[in-house]
Design a protein that fits this description.
By secondary structure, the protein is of the alpha/beta class. It contains 8 helices and 31 strands.
Length: 416
C-alpha cells in the first residue's frame, strides 16, 4: 500500500499544482518511480496507490502500470482515491486512516502480510529481505529504520531496541530522543494485526501510523521489530534536500547509482527525439534529458526532457524540469525551474547575497531561487536568492528590474 496523497508543502511552489510524489526528479523520473520500482524488483506485483492531493498528473503517470510491469489481470497497480460511502464519508485524514478506508481492497487479496510505503522517498530497497526478517523474528510489526545524526533525530519517529532487533520503545519526533534509529515510514504488518488495529482506531481523528497505530500495537503486547537499512535513503521533503539529492546524481561515482543493471528504476518514457548539443555549447558534469537542445553553457546541473537552453545562456548548479525554456543570454545560478516555465532573455535567476526569506524562511532557504511551473520571467530582470516566483510575471512586477533576495512574487494566485 503506497501512500501518495500528500501535498509536500515544504517544497513550496513545486507542489502548488502537483502532488509531491509526482514531482520530477533526476531529469527523467518522478519521485514515485522509486518505491514502485522497488516493489517490482522485490517481487511485489499487487500495489494500491492512495492518492488525494492534486492527483491528475500522478494518475496519468501511473496509468495501468505498464512501465513497472504492473499491468496485470490479477493484482497489478490500482489507484485508490477517497470515495463517497453510505454513511460517513471523509477525505483521507492521516496515513493510517487512508489505509483503513481501503480495508475492503486489501481483503480481496486475502493477504498474509501488508507492506506500507511512502511515495515520496528516494531509495532502493529489497522488501523481500525485510519480509524474511519479519518472518524469522515472528514479528507482528516490522519497522524499517536507519541511523541518523543525533542532532537531527528529533525530526523523525525514533525507535529504541534491545540490541536483538526487538523494539522496546517508540518516540514520535521526541524533543529528547533516546536513540538515533529513525523510522523510515516503511512498515510490514501481519494482516490480522493491521486489520484489528485499524478497526480499533477507526474513530481516531487523523489516525496516523507513527502517532497512533504503532503505540496501539505496543499497548496490546504485539511483537514489534526494527529492520535496520544500510543503503541510500533520502526524504526529499525540503527544497534543500531535493536540490542536494539531484546534485548527487551528477557525481562521477554517484552515491545513489541509477545505472545498476540488477536494480533498474523504471518510469513512463515519452517518445522524444535525442538531445542536441550545438557546436558552440559547453556542457560539464550534467544529466540532460531526451529532446533537450543546448546552445549555451551548462555545468553541474540536472536538465529534464524537452528543455531549450538558448545561445549565451549560462546554467550552473541548477535543476531545470521538462519543457522549460531558458532564452538567449539568461543566467541560472543555484536555481530550480519547474516544468514548462520560461526565463526571458538576459534575465538572471539566483544572484546577490543570501538573505532570509521574509515570509516563509523555513521553506525558501538554502540559497535557492525557485520558479514554479508554467511561470514566465520577463527579459532583463534579476531575481535574488531564497526567493520564489510563480505565474506569468511582467517587467512592472520587478521594482528597478529586480526581485530582491528573500522575497516572494506570486502572480498565479496559489498559496506558496
Amino acid at each position: 500500500m503506497l501512500l501518495a496523497g500528500g501535498q509536500g508543502s515544504r517544497l513550496g511552489v513545486l507542489t502548488a499544482k502537483v502532488a509531491k510524489p509526482a514531482v520530477a526528479f533526476g531529469g527523467k523520473y518522478r519521485i514515485i518511480d522509486f518505491p514502485l520500482s522497488n516493489c517490482i524488483n522485490s517481487g511485489i506485483d499487487t500495489v494500491g496507490v492512495l492518492t488525494q492531493y492534486q492527483p491528475l498528473r500522478l494518475n496519468t503517470h501511473i496509468g495501468i502500470g505498464i512501465p513497472w510491469d504492473l499491468d496485470r489481470n490479477e493484482g497489478g497497480v490500482t489507484v485508490l482515491p477517497p470515495y463517497e460511502k453510505v454513511g460517513k464519508t471523509e477525505w483521507y485524514t492521516g496515513t493510517a486512516n487512508a489505509i483503513y478506508q481501503n480495508l475492503e481492497y486489501m481483503e480481496n487479496f486475502h493477504p498474509d502480510y501488508v507492506l506500507i510505503l511512502s511515495g515520496d522517498h528516494i531509495y532502493k530497497m529489497d522488501y523481500q529481505i525485510m519480509l524474511d526478517y519479519h518472518k524469522s523474528h515472528n514479528a507482528d510489526v516490522t519497522l524499517a529504520v536507519m541511523p541518523v545524526p543525533q542532532e537531527e533525530a528529533s525530526r523523525f519517529g525514533i525507535v529504541v531496541t534491545d540490541g536483538k532487533g526487538k523494539v522496546t520503545e517508540f518516540q514520535e519526533k521526541p524533543e529528547h530522543p533516546k536513540s538515533n534509529l529513525a523510522s523510515m515510514g516503511i512498515y510490514i504488518f501481519s494482516w490480522p494485526v493491521l486489520r484489528d488495529a485499524l478497526i480499533a482506531l477507526s474513530e481516531q481523528e487523523g489516525c496516523d501510523f507513527g502517532k497512533h497505530v504503532i503505540p496501539h500495537c505496543f499497548r496490546n503486547g504485539k511483537s514489534i521489530c526494527a529492520y535496520e537499512f544500510g543503503g541510500y535513503w533520502k526524504d526529499v521533503g525540503t527544497l534543500g534536500s531535493y536540490w542536494e539529492a539531484n546534485m548527487e546524481l551528477i557525481d562521477i561515482v554517484p552515491e545513489f547509482n541509477l545505472y545498476e543493471e540488477f536494480w533498474k528504476i523504471y518510469t513512463k518514457n515519452d517518445i522524444l527525439p535525442p538531445q542536441y548539443i550545438s557546436a558552440e555549447a559547453k556542457v560539464y558534469r550534467c544529466l540532460i534529458g531526451d529532446g533537450t537542445e543546448v546552445y549555451g553553457d551548462v555545468a553541474n546541473s540536472v536538465i529534464g526532457s524537452g528543455v531549450m537552453i538558448g545561445r549565451g545562456a549560462v546554467v550552473r548548479d541548477s535543476i531545470v524540469m521538462r519543457g522549460a525554456v531558458i532564452k538567449d543570454g539568461a543566467v541560472l545560478d543555484k536555481a530550480i525551474i519547474a516544468e514548462n516555465s520560461v526565463v526571458g532573455e538576459r534575465s538572471v535567476v539566483g544572484c546577490g547575497e543570501e538573505v532570509q526569506n521574509r515570509l516563509k524562511p523555513k521553506i525558501y532557504g538554502f540559497g535557492l531561487a525557485v520558479v514554479g511551473e508554467d511561470s514566465v520571467i520577463p527579459p532583463d530582470v534579476r531575481i535574488g536568492r531564497n526567493t520564489a516566483v510563480t505565474g506569468n510575471t511582467i517587467r512592472e512586477d520587478y521594482p528597478d528590474g529586480q526581485l530582491a533576495s528573500g522575497e516572494i512574487l506570486d502572480k498565479a494566485g496559489v498559496s506558496i
